[in-house]
Design brief:
Length: about 550
């Protein structure tokens, strides 16, 4: 990334926020507010570059405006910047929240959800009645033309803002899925770090196959979206005092708070800090998603005056109880599992034999012939993007059968087995075209779940199409020290000839499909073995997606 790139990104952002054409003087002033000390002359220089790229357009003496191409690049093409920007946006919302719980006045951070069916509204209200939410206070607008509703609900980020306004820094670490047993939170089963993703962590888990809120209402056992923060331990007593006062006014999303340095709900906490778990404000809407109701959810992107919100239910208490102990086993992060499988990879490029890492997903036995035909069709249409190797595996479930595909982490293992360090960096969603670009990235570091499983679960791929090539596929980014580039390229070229999906080998510090690579390294982009599995889900075949499952012998694999 060139030194001028961040400045041009900010200029595009500034222009995107303006309704009217904007001149270099106003842009320079706004840049200064954002930490970029750039004079008008330097701004004009950068603007000329943006004009040449077609990202901006000069509107006479009035200034410039962003073009549709510029908006598209800002939305999709700067994904490496969005990975950092997602967390910064969260901090911005915390800072701007000015709710005073003593006077009950000020702005709270809200989630905005659109509900398109009355039955969905009824399901959502049941969850509010059970108190599995941050707050029963909502702002609801019903459409006069249909049974649709727009509902603003209090986001857990509001609690961070309240703590900050009272001199307590709350540091968001993870969003994930929290397991509940007998109405008691037990441990997080999945986590994504706030600092290492282009997608809001909780947004990754809004899917009918991820949560089980309805099960909690019926049996007391299930899973809900939740956030995890830490605060300085010296602020623990003050925080508890504030939490108790918030409960009295109807803001009650705290699920657990630990002691200093105490690991809670399966998450380690450093000494001197205290862990804090907060229910996801979108939990009631997940219940509607579980029933396939049409609900559109936007997490923590807006503010609402608390005075404009009214309780949807009279119940201020939750059916969830506080955990009685903090002895949960630590949640295993993805890279820990991955590195151990990578270490077992011993595939020999010369004789094409040895161990590789596989994903093993499951379909109904009655669908296996249809599944294989579809996989073959997808490979035939786009052999440069699809890994052709697979293996049918028996399942413990008599009605299911497994399909093993080669995991792209096998490439890391093969290179490492040849004395070349290769580090998994991101799992991403790659938009194809004349200039392929990543439109979403989630780091393998700081996540407990394979990013590609999330993209499949949220129906974000576009691989299976009867008439065209894939347009959005799963891919991973890896980085290798530049000193090993020549030797790595030789091995990667051989792997590509064998059939491993390797899309691009980058240059030092190059934005590889707009994914940022660390200094003194170069990046490679490899296709995911789950692309064929994603195509099955797109074709409405019932498939249980599993990633990074087991070691298998390459010579036992079949070819599409």
């Amino acid at each position: 990334m060139s030194d001028s790139e961040p400045r041009m990104i900010e200029i595009l952002r500034i222009l995107n926020e303006q309704e009217n054409p904007t001149g270099s003087k106003l842009i320079a002033e706004e840049l200064k507010n954002r930490g970029f000390n750039l004079g008008e002359r330097a701004v004009r220089y950068h603007m000329q570059i943006l004009d040449e790229k077609g990202y901006t357009e000069k509107m006479g003496y009035s200034g410039r405006k962003i073009t549709e191409l510029g908006k598209d690049v800002l939305e999709k093409g700067l994904i490496y910047n969005q990975v950092d920007f997602a967390f910064s946006k969260f901090e911005e919302m915390i800072y701007l929240c000015d709710f005073d719980y003593l006077s009950k006045k000020g702005k709270v951070v809200v989630n905005t959800s659109n509900i398109y069916e009355k039955k969905a509204y009824e399901v959502i209200k049941k969850v509010f009645d059970a108190g599995i939410c941050v707050s029963p206070y909502v702002n609801t607008k019903k459409s006069s033309r249909s049974n649709s509703y727009q509902m603003k609900t209090i986001c857990g980020t509001t609690i961070d803002g309240i703590l900050l306004n009272n001199g307590i820094p709350s540091i968001p670490l993870y969003g994930g899925l929290l397991e509940i047993e007998d109405n008691i939170p037990t441990k997080f089963s999945e986590l994504i770090s706030y600092k290492k993703t282009s997608i809001a962590p909780l947004d990754a888990f809004i899917d009918k196959d991820m949560t089980s809120v309805l099960s909690i209402l019926e049996t007391g056992t299930g899973s809900i979206p939740a956030n995890f923060r830490v605060i300085p331990s010296d602020a623990r007593d003050k925080t508890i005092n504030i939490i108790n006062k918030l409960k009295n006014i109807g803001i009650n999303g705290i699920l657990d708070i630990g002691e200093s340095g105490e690991n809670i709900l399966g998450i380690p906490v450093t000494e001197g800090m205290t862990g804090l778990a907060i229910a996801g404000g979108i939990t009631p809407f997940c219940a509607a998603k579980e029933m396939d109701y049409n609900v559109d959810i936007k997490i923590g992107e807006d503010f609402e005056e608390f005075e404009n919100m009214k309780p949807i239910t009279k119940n201020k208490n939750s059916i969830l109880k506080a955990p009685t102990n903090h002895t949960s086993s630590k949640i295993p992060f993805l890279l820990s599992k991955s590195w151990n499988l990578i270490e077992k990879t011993d595939f020999n490029i010369e004789n094409k034999e040895g161990s590789i890492i596989t994903n093993v997903s499951y379909v109904d036995k009655k669908d296996i012939d249809k599944s294989l035909d579809l996989m073959k069709n997808v490979y035939k249409k786009s052999p440069e993007h699809i890994n052709p190797f697979y293996k049918i595996i028996e399942s413990e479930n008599d009605d299911k059968i497994g399909i093993a595909t080669i995991c792209s982490l096998s490439i890391d293992g093969i290179l490492i087995n040849n004395g070349l360090i290769c580090r998994p960096k991101y799992g991403g969603l790659l938009e194809l075209g004349d200039s392929p670009l990543f439109i979403e990235l989630i780091s393998y570091s700081g996540s407990s779940i394979d990013p590609h499983k999330i993209f499949i679960s949220k129906n974000m791929t576009s691989i299976f199409n009867e008439y065209t090539h894939p347009s959005r596929i799963l891919a991973s980014v890896k980085e290798i020290p530049f000193i090993a580039k020549d030797e790595s390229e030789k091995l990667l070229d051989e792997l590509k000839k064998i059939g491993f999906s390797i899309y691009k080998i980058g240059k030092p510090r190059e934005l590889i499909y707009n994914s940022k690579i660390n200094n003194y390294n170069f990046g490679i982009v490899a296709g995911s073995g789950l692309n064929t599995i994603a195509s099955l889900k797109e074709a409405n075949i019932n498939v249980e997606v599993k990633a990074i499952e087991k070691i298998m012998s390459f010579e036992d694999m079949d070819h599409l």
